[in-house]
Amino acid sequence: MRPTHLLTYSGSFQTAFSADNGPEDFLRPLRRLNGEERFSLNLMKIPRGKWLEDLSEAERREMAETYLQCAGSANALSIELRQKAAGAYHLYTVGRPGVRRGKPGVAIPFQHGNRTLQVYPDEVFVAEEAAEIFHRYFKTGEVDTRYLLREIDLNAFYRELESDSDPPDGL
């Protein structure tokens, strides 16, 4: 069966997903996230009718523009969606409805604590709920409308290391 999506685990291990993958295929790696060496999951759609090895560099770059990803540990994950809206790409954090006052105050550390994302309490997920969100996105290309999207930028990710003040290139 031709793959439809590419799943990247902690920026290094990649596996192709096809229509026969189910929610448990997301839950297993999400439960293993510890925020240290296992810290993220990223799901991108492969251009229709293509095999990974047949993608041009331009197709790979385009494919990487839209995705669903998460970072953190199995007990405290932030989920982000990058999609095109009004002709430009935007990055959003996914959350449940709730009261949001002031700046986000919950720190989600990842990648050995070198990076952190600040989110609101209703934007923190555990592996089981994240697996449902990933599976729906895998099947439909959308996040369920019961969740809210709050736009953020890559500057929302910052290094806690004093010697490096540049924002990271992503997860």
Task: Describe what you observe in this structure.
The structure is a single chain. The chain is an alpha+beta fold and 171 residues long. The protein has helices spanning 24-32, 57-63, 127-140; strands at residues 5-9, 13-17, 40-45, 67-73, 76-85, 88-95, 106-110, 115-119, 148-152, 157-159. Strands 2-1-3-4-5-6-9 form a 7-stranded antiparallel beta sheet. The chain has a 3-stranded antiparallel beta sheet with strand order 7-8-10, with no helix packed on it. A hairpin with a 4-residue loop joins strand 7 and strand 8. Helix 1 (24-32) crosses helix 3. The longest helix has 14 residues, at 127-140. The two termini are 29 Å apart. The relative contact order is 0.17.
Set down the secondary structure blueprint:
Elements: E1 5-9, E2 13-17, H1 24-32, E3 40-45, H2 57-63, E4 67-73, E5 76-85, E6 88-95, E7 106-110, E8 115-119, H3 127-140, E9 148-152, E10 157-159
Antiparallel strand pairs: 1-2, 1-3, 3-4, 4-5, 5-6, 6-9, 7-8, 8-10
Strand content: 25-35%
- Strand sequence of the main sheet, in spatial order? 2-1-3-4-5-6-9
Kindly state the mean pLDDT as a whole number? 87
SS element count, helices: 3
How many individual β-strands?
10
Shape: globular
Instruction: Work out the radius of gyration.
Output: 16 Å
Helix content: 10-25%
> SS-based structural class?
alpha+beta
Low-confidence stretches: 158-170
- Kindly report how far apart the N and C termini lie: 29 Å
Order of helices and strands: EEHEHEEEEEHEE
Described by strand count, sense and barrel closure, the largest sheet is:
7 strands, antiparallel
